[in-house]
Design goal:
Distance between the termini: 32 Å
Number of helices: 8
Number of strands: 7
Radius of gyration: 17 Å
Structural class: alpha/beta
Length: 249
C-alpha cells in the first residue's frame, strides 16, 4: 500500500515508535527512524528501516536531520511525531526544569518535527501526520498534570493543522493509547514503587487496572491504527483523537 512513500518516525528505536515503523515498512514504505540512542536505532535497521540520530529537543538537530532524511529518501509523506516522555509528578513537586523538559519533548519536539516534514510533504499530492498522543490528551491523568498538559497541547496543534489544511490532500490525526506494554511502563513501575512503597506487582496492577479491558495494550495494536490512517479510504478522517484504550471513556 505504501510503496514509494517515505515515512519518518521520531523515537523509532523502541516501543510504539518501532512498532509503527515496522508496520509501515511491512506496507512498503521507506522509514527513517530517529532518536538519541544510536545503538538502539541501529539494532532496528532493516531493508526498509533506516536509523538517523536526531534530538527533538534541539531545533538544529531536527532541521538538519529531516533535511538529511529527505535528501536520502525523498519528501516525507508520513510524519509520525512519536518521541515523548511520560512521568507522573504532583503539581506541588513540579519545578520549572521538569515542566520545561516535558514540554520541550512532547510539544516542542512534535511541533519541530511536523514543521520540517511539512516543508516537503506539501510539495507532494498526499500526506499523513500521525502524532502519538495519549489518553491523557483527552482526559485528565491523575498525578500527571504536566504530562496531561503536554498531550492536550499536542492535540490542539493537530486539530489546528487539520483545519489549516482541510481542503488539501494531507490529514492530521493523533493516536491516543492508554497504558501500552513498553519500557515507559517499566520505568513508571519503578517510580510508583519508590513513591508508594508498593510491590512491583501492585505498581504494575495500578496501571493495568486503568485499562478497562484489564491488560496492557500491545504496541502493535497502536501501530495498526497508524497503518489504517495511511489507507486511501481514511482520507476523510482528519483532526481526530483515535483512542486505543480498551474501552476507556
Amino acid at each position: 500500500m505504501l510503496n514509494g512513500k517515505h515515512a519518518l518516525v521520531t523515537g523509532g528505536g523502541s516501543g510504539i515508535g518501532l512498532a509503527i515503523a515496522q508496520a509501515l515498512a511491512a506496507e512498503g514504505a521507506q522509514v527513517t527512524i530517529t532518536g538519541r540512542n544510536v545503538d538502539r536505532l541501529e539494532a532496528a535497521r532493516s531493508d526498509h528501516i533506516f536509523p538517523l540520530a536526531m534530538d527533538v529537543m534541539d531545533e538544529a538537530s531536527v532541521v538538519h536531520g529531516v533535511a538529511a532524511a529527505v535528501e536520502d529518501r525523498g519528501p516525507v509523506q508520513i510524519c509520525v511525531p512519536n518521541a515523548g516522555i511520560a512521568e507522573g509528578r504532583s503539581i506541588l513537586k513540579t519545578d520549572m526544569a521538569f515542566w520545561r523538559t516535558m514540554m520541550a519533548t512532547n510539544v516542542d519536539g512534535a511541533f519541530l518535527t511536523i514543521r520540517e516534514c511539512l516543508k516537503t510533504m506539501v510539495e507532494t499530492d498526499w500526506g499523513r501526520v500521525i502524532a502519538v498522543s495519549s489518553i491523557a490528551g483527552i482526559k485528565g491523568l491523575k498525578g500527571g498534570a504536566t504530562y496531561t498538559a503536554s498531550k492536550h497541547a499536542l492535540m490542539g496543534l493537530i486539530r489546528a493543522l487539520a483545519a489549516d489544511y482541510a481542503k488539501k490532500p494531507y490529514t492530521f490525526n493523533a493516536l491516543c493509547p492508554a497504558y501500552v506494554d513498553t519500557d515507559i511502563v517499566t520505568m513508571n513501575v519503578d517510580s510508583i514503587m519508590k513513591r508508594t512503597g508498593w510491590s512491583e506487582a501492585e505498581a504494575r496492577a495500578a496501571m493495568v487496572d486503568v485499562n478497562p479491558h484489564g491488560r496492557l495494550i500491545a504496541p502493535e495494536e497502536v501501530a495498526q491504527a497508524a497503518v489504517w490512517l495511511c489507507h486511501e479510504a481514511s482520507g476523510s478522517v482528519n483532526g481526530q483523537a483515535i483512542q486505543i484504550a480498551g474501552g476507556e471513556v
